[in-house]
């Protein structure tokens, strides 16, 4: 959004642009607090070939002023993304403000873990970190004004493009749903089989141990001349 | 399209005032909108809180669902900037709460698993603040939408609700699947365990019985004689 507005802007427009940028920066609305070596993990269950974009911004707690500093250079966050099989897809160090992107190649639960690697927090004891996080998946990750500018689309064409992306997302999700339902069905059938075989096996074990018990005891009592 | 010199200057000036107006409008009236959809793991005896700065008058919706873990329930609490509790529910599996922000400030919502001793839960929540950001910078949003555009908008809204239903269906299916997989493992362990117990008990019974008769025989002979 800021890119389209900023093109060829006169000097008067720059503060307005700054305001807009601040507004957009504040749009990374949701935030949470994280401790020094604490690791926070988020799960994204996505179909394959889906792009995920994550934006984060960190602020450090200043104990003296009892306020969160607007931005702290030198503060780093380590981002690790694992695919459903546990394989690491992305493992990188970013600055205090960062943006990470990955595309899924297998459908399933991807795990995004963030932790701070900063040793500076030890200096400000009782270090708390405020992390603003925004994760966009699939068609939400598309930046439509950028696409409009790049492909030179009219408003109607852009809207059609957005609808096409949404429908594609729905189709991918439906395919993933079919794959999941198959897994669920296999699990249920396996449970069914296991219960069946187990009940048969238990009955057989019961009968066999009963027979063995009686024969053993009979031979024992005969040996002891009680029968 | 290149404009003549004076028109260009006029357009630039109008553009800059437009930027100011737009920025001001955005900051005062709507505020940044959007949705945050997050799935996270809540360890046992833990509480996790999320915060968001919301402008007054914004309509917000918080929806959450527990996907895996224990009895699939969690405590949820939503507070406004003054600490007043807007929503508080204990041990809920799924709920949706809509409210309009009565004042500017930081709203806080927390999920708590403090009542559970050893099961950790996976919780999904979707926090929608205001409307989604518009598709365009809206520099020329003065004219009304044409029929085609409003058709596109209604299709977009319908598709958004399809995607929303799909998400909830996926979560319910994940919940069902998690229960089925738990059942499967439990049946496997239990059947092996029970077979072993059966064997141990039946063999033990026989040997215990034999040991009774071994002792009793000496006493019986003593009594008999």
Automatic annotation (TrEMBL), chain A:
<keyword id="KW-0472">Membrane</keyword>
<dbReference type="InterPro" id="IPR009038">
    <property type="entry name" value="GOLD_dom"/>
</dbReference>
<keyword id="KW-0812">Transmembrane</keyword>
<dbReference type="InterPro" id="IPR015720">
    <property type="entry name" value="Emp24-like"/>
</dbReference>
<dbReference type="GO" id="GO:0005789">
    <property type="term" value="C:endoplasmic reticulum membrane"/>
</dbReference>
<keyword id="KW-1133">Transmembrane helix</keyword>
<comment type="similarity">
    <text>Belongs to the EMP24/GP25L family.</text>
</comment>
<keyword id="KW-0732">Signal</keyword>
<feature type="transmembrane region" description="Helical">
    <location>
        <begin position="195"/>
        <end position="214"/>
    </location>
</feature>
<dbReference type="Pfam" id="PF01105">
    <property type="entry name" value="EMP24_GP25L"/>
</dbReference>
<keyword id="KW-0256">Endoplasmic reticulum</keyword>
<feature type="domain" description="GOLD">
    <location>
        <begin position="39"/>
        <end position="137"/>
    </location>
</feature>
<feature type="signal peptide">
    <location>
        <begin position="1"/>
        <end position="29"/>
    </location>
</feature>
<protein>
    <submittedName>
        <fullName>Transmembrane p24 trafficking protein 4</fullName>
    </submittedName>
</protein>
UniProtKB/TrEMBL annotation, chain B:
<keyword id="KW-1133">Transmembrane helix</keyword>
<dbReference type="GO" id="GO:0005789">
    <property type="term" value="C:endoplasmic reticulum membrane"/>
</dbReference>
<keyword id="KW-0325">Glycoprotein</keyword>
<dbReference type="GO" id="GO:0012507">
    <property type="term" value="C:ER to Golgi transport vesicle membrane"/>
</dbReference>
<comment type="function">
    <text>Potential role in vesicular protein trafficking, mainly in the early secretory pathway. Appears to play a role in the biosynthesis of secreted cargo including processing and post-translational modifications.</text>
</comment>
<keyword id="KW-0968">Cytoplasmic vesicle</keyword>
<feature type="transmembrane region" description="Helical">
    <location>
        <begin position="187"/>
        <end position="209"/>
    </location>
</feature>
<keyword id="KW-0653">Protein transport</keyword>
<keyword id="KW-0812">Transmembrane</keyword>
<keyword id="KW-0813">Transport</keyword>
<keyword id="KW-0472">Membrane</keyword>
<feature type="domain" description="GOLD">
    <location>
        <begin position="47"/>
        <end position="129"/>
    </location>
</feature>
<keyword id="KW-0333">Golgi apparatus</keyword>
<dbReference type="Pfam" id="PF01105">
    <property type="entry name" value="EMP24_GP25L"/>
</dbReference>
<dbReference type="InterPro" id="IPR015720">
    <property type="entry name" value="Emp24-like"/>
</dbReference>
<dbReference type="GO" id="GO:0033116">
    <property type="term" value="C:endoplasmic reticulum-Golgi intermediate compartment membrane"/>
</dbReference>
<keyword id="KW-0256">Endoplasmic reticulum</keyword>
<dbReference type="GO" id="GO:0030663">
    <property type="term" value="C:COPI-coated vesicle membrane"/>
</dbReference>
<feature type="signal peptide">
    <location>
        <begin position="1"/>
        <end position="35"/>
    </location>
</feature>
<dbReference type="GO" id="GO:0015031">
    <property type="term" value="P:protein transport"/>
</dbReference>
<keyword id="KW-0732">Signal</keyword>
<dbReference type="InterPro" id="IPR036598">
    <property type="entry name" value="GOLD_dom_sf"/>
</dbReference>
């Amino acid at each position: 959004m800021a890119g389209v507005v900023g093109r060829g802007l006169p000097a008067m427009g720059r503060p307005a642009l700054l305001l807009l940028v601040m507004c957009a920066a504040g749009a990374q609305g949701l935030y949470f607090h994280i401790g020094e070596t604490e690791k926070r993990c988020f799960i994204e269950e996505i179909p394959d070939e889906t792009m995920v974009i994550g934006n984060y911004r960190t602020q450090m707690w200043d104990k003296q002023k009892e306020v969160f500093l607007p931005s702290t250079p030198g503060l780093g966050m380590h981002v690790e993304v694992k695919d459903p099989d546990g394989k690491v897809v992305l493992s990188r160090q970013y600055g205090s403000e960062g943006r990470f992107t990955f595309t899924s190649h297998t459908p399933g639960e991807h795990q995004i873990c963030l932790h701070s690697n900063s040793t500076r927090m030890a200096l400000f004891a009782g270090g708390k970190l405020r992390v603003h996080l925004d994760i966009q998946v699939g068609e939400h990750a598309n930046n439509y004004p950028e696409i409009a500018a790049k492909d030179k689309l009219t408003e109607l064409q852009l809207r059609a493009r957005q609808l096409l992306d949404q429908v594609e997302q729905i189709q991918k999700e439906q395919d993933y749903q079919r794959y999941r339902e198959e897994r669920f069905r296999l699990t249920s059938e396996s449970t069914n089989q296991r219960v069946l075989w187990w009940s048969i096996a238990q009955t057989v074990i019961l009968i066999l141990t009963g027979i063995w018990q009686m024969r053993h005891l009979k031979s024992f009592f005969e040996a002891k001349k009680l029968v | 399209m290149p404009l003549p010199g004076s028109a260009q200057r006029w357009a630039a000036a109008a553009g800059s005032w437009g930027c100011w107006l737009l920025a001001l409008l955005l900051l005062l009236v709507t505020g940044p909108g959007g949705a945050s959809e997050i799935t996270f793991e809540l360890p046992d005896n833990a509480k996790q809180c999320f915060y968001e700065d919301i402008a007054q008058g914004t309509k917000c919706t918080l929806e959450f669902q527990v996907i895996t873990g224990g009895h699939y329930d969690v405590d949820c609490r939503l507070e406004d900037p003054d600490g007043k509790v807007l929503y508080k529910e204990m041990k809920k599996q799924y709920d949706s709460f809509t409210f309009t922000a009565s004042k500017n400030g930081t709203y806080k919502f927390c999920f708590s698993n403090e009542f559970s001793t050893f099961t950790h839960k996976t919780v999904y929540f979707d926090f929608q603040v205001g409307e989604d950001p518009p598709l365009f910078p809206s520099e020329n949003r003065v004219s009304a939408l044409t029929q085609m555009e409003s058709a596109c908008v209604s299709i977009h809204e319908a598709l958004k609700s399809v995607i929303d239903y799909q998400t909830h269906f996926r979560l319910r299916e994940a919940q069902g699947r998690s229960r089925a997989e738990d059942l499967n493992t439990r049946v496997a362990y239990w059947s092996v365990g029970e077979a072993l117990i059966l064997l141990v008990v039946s063999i033990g019974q026989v040997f215990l019985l034999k040991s009774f008769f071994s002792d009793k025989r000496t006493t019986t002979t003593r009594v008999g004689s």
